[in-house]
């Protein structure tokens, strides 16, 4: 049974939760999860993330069963690009929504294999035992500086421009989607999260919490959220977890928002 859960919290500083999250077991046998972190302030940010989730989930809910990995990858990319078009067009038609945008990280699973689609600085991780691997590459100014050798890894955590995103959904008419194939084995966990979690919870903490397989997945998700709150909770916090079981696949899903 594939166990899934998502939780979201406004945090300790913000007055509005601009994150959106969604997980479903689609009728065709696929599992789809999406985390989006909106930008643009009150109304605009939460509108952008909501439109991203609604568009991607609506587009992929009509997939044919038994598609190949290449077809699933193309479908996920097309859905995210459609969301970009919807958000960009909506912003252009409403002055209050001008320049709104959102990150997006989405997982489309078929049995034990899947595709991750990504734009922005929300992340996907794969956790195997005590090993945590970041699957996505942040589209941020600080990450570009780090990759070019201009700052150290330590400086990326404290750089004054660490929240500047270089690629987002809905801010430009054209955007490119990063796609990553993923294969899960028994006990593996995929985590999607907004930067409200990844900026405040270390990979060691992630592995420690998620590795407590005797705890329900919902409790592990809540413990991650609480760690981010204890570390300051200076942003909205969202986490979605997907755990590959040892036995035959079916789905248990939970969701909490506060």
Question: Could you give the count of β-strands?
Answer: 12
Q: In percent, how much strand structure appears in the residues?
A: 25-35%
Q: How many DSSP helices?
A: 7
End-to-end gap? 27 Å
Whole-angstrom Rg: 17 Å
Helical residues, percent: 25-40%
**Mean pLDDT over all positions:** 92
Which structural class matches the secondary elements?
A: alpha+beta
What does this structure look like?
About 30% of the residues lie in helices and about 30% in strands. The protein is of the alpha+beta class and about 260 residues long. Strand 7 (about 125-130) and strand 8 form a beta hairpin. Helix 1 packs antiparallel against helix 2 and helix 6 packs antiparallel against helix 7. The two termini are about 25 Å apart. It holds the Pfam family PP2C_2. It comes from Paenibacillus shunpengii.
Keywords summarizing the entry:
PPM-type_phosphatase-like_dom, PPM-type-like_dom_sf, six-stranded antiparallel beta sheet, PP2C, globular, Stp1/IreP family PP2C-type Ser/Thr phosphatase
Secondary-structure topology with pairs:
Layout: E1 2-9, E2 19-25, E3 30-39, H1 44-60, H2 69-92, E4 101-102, E5 104-110, E6 113-119, E7 123-128, E8 131-134, H3 141-147, H4 153-156, E9 178-183, E10 189-193, H5 195-198, H6 203-210, H7 217-230, E11 237-243, E12 251-257
Parallel strand pairs: 1-12
Antiparallel strand pairs: 1-11, 2-3, 3-4, 3-5, 5-6, 6-9, 7-8, 7-10, 10-11
Organism: Paenibacillus shunpengii
Protein name: Stp1/IreP family PP2C-type Ser/Thr phosphatase
Domain PPM-type phosphatase: 4-244
């Amino acid at each position: 049974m594939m166990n899934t859960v998502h939780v979201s919290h406004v945090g300790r500083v913000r007055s509005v939760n601009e994150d959106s999250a969604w997980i479903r077991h689609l009728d065709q046998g696929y599992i789809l999860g999406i985390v989006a972190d909106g930008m643009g302030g009150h109304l605009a940010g939460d509108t952008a993330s909501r439109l991203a989730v609604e568009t991607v989930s609506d587009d992929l809910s009509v997939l044919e069963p038994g598609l190949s990995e290449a077809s699933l990858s193309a479908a996920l990319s097309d859905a995210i690009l459609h969301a970009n078009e919807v958000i960009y067009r909506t912003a252009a038609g409403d002055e209050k929504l001008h320049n709104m945008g959102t990150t997006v990280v989405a997982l489309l699973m078929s049995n034990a294999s899947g595709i991750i689609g990504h734009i922005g600085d929300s992340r996907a991780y794969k956790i195997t035992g005590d090993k945590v691997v970041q699957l996505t590459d942040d589209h941020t100014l600080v990450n570009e500086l780090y990759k070019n050798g201009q700052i150290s890894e330590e400086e990326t955590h404290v750089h004054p421009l660490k929240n500047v995103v270089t690629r987002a959904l809905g801010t430009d008419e054209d955007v490119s989607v990063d796609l990553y194939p993923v294969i899960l084995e028994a006990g593996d966990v995929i985590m999607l999260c907004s930067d409200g979690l990844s900026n405040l919870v270390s990979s060691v903490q992630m592995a420690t919490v998620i590795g407590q397989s005797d705890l329900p997945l919902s409790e592990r998700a809540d413990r991650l959220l609480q760690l981010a709150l204890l570390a300051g909770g200076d942003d909205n916090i969202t986490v979605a977890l997907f755990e590959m079981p040892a036995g035959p696949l079916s789905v248990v899903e939970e969701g909490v928002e506060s």
